[in-house]
Amino acid sequence: MSGFRINGRHINDDFPYLRLVERSLPHPEEIPIKDSVIGMHGDYDFAIAIYGERLLENRELTYVFTGKETNESRRLFDKTMLENWLITGSYVPLYDDKDPLYYYLARCVAVELEADNGVSKTNYNIVFDAYPYRIKRTTEGSPYWDDYDISDYYQETKFEVNGLTTITLINNGTKGVPPEIITSGEFTIIKDGYQYVIPAGRITIDDFRLEVGNNEFTVNGNGTIKFNWHKEVI
Asked: Among candidates 80, 102, 110, which has minimal Cα distance to 5?
């Protein structure tokens, strides 16, 4: 099989006669916030200054499948069935067979049908609107070798803490992410001059982010604390 899986099904599960002939996964376009600054050559990118990273537009993913159905009614029926399956709901994980470690967050926006009866060929162009970053399927710190490639970095993400402790976590993705924090008791985290009180259980705080690169912070408490996050890359 070659293509994608979405909404719990692979496209070849119900359409085994469709064959992938082309995929277009372009780089997302940047959203510039630029202006000239007096006394400075060129323009200044305020997106980096304000948000700490580049801002990107969603990207358009296109998959082209070919079939050999020459009956027009059957082609239109297949198109309808594809639309009923794909054009539903909002953004959901899209798993591309070519990229087994990551997924896209996408929603289908079009199923376009082309036909060339002269060569008994039908093209189905399936278009998705997708979040600009690819998301790692597994959380960082996975113990399984198959969850890593050459770009990954293994690190411990669960810590036994007794009192004030310094922790360093590395985000080697291309975008800052807020991790899920799992604790056995109440903890206090101090990072970049800000203090966060973490109750026992599971919590995600949007303001507490692991920025790209090394993230050093202190935690104070007693018990276990674990950080779960999925790396995001272009």
From this structure: 102
